[in-house]
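Exercise 3.2. Students should predict the tertiary structure of the chain below and write it as structure tokens, then compare their answer with the key that follows.

Predict this chain's 3D structure.
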Amino acid sequence: MRNFNLGLIREAYEKGQNITQLLRNEGSEVNTLDAIELAYDLQAGSYARGALDDVSQFLRRTEEMGEILSAHISFLDVIIDCGTGELTTLSGVSRCFPNNVKLLAFDLSLSRLNAGLRFASRAMRNDLLSGLNVFAASIDRIPLPDESVDVVTTSHALEPNFGRELELLTEMLRISRNKLVLFEPSYEDNTDEGRERMQRLGYVRDLPKYIGLAGGRLVEKFALQNCVNPLNPTYCYVVEKNKVHPKADISDTYFKCPVTGEVLQNRQGYLWSKSGGYAYPLINGIPLLRGKDAILMCHE
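Answer key:
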């Protein structure tokens, strides 16, 4: 990560400045991964507080999303929430899921995952919480094998990644056996004011085009009724793989090194691949599986 002056950035955040916009290179519309991680890490806990401050709105929104998502989930499916943030949306939508599914979730920010696990401990269904697998990772390098999960979902996780749409969609399609169900903004369907805001904040655009280029097939796209910000309305994108793979056993979902692709073995306090030569630590029981977390270790 770049050597940011965290003191000055905290002051800017407390004054209400947009951190990704503040840290963006002059003249660029692209948010760097470092800037995205820092911006969200600083606001860790705010989404959980927002859900608790307006429970009725949180329940309406997640019930709508949960009913949509559950229509694409089957018995014994493995579901992954990419860019899960504070697990607020996943905790809410999972109330609609069938029994005997397996949940995975990751985010770029460790602080958000820490806050999210505290929220999920109160808000998520106990049967799903007990098997929840949470880890820190980046959407451009998901540390899972090809076709290892059934359904991939996001909730405004692609949003700040203008310029990386094709890369991220390709990676999510790689790990999916079946489909993506994405809840993201739509630049094309937004108002003039909303599009100007999306441009200013470096938000994604042209998702239908990039879905096709990534090898997916957009079978549905529609607006959600419950929207937090009218300038940033949520749309559902249902994407099928051109070739659907057969369901595999839940035990077939395992971690791979995001640098080398080698299978990681679970050791006490870290994950390691001898052939890959890298180890990855755990903090609060959460594996850190971002490329920058790799620690050179050729021998135990």
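Discussion points: Residues 54-251 form a domain with the Rossmann fold fold (CATH 3.40.50.150). The two ends are 27 Å apart (CA to CA).
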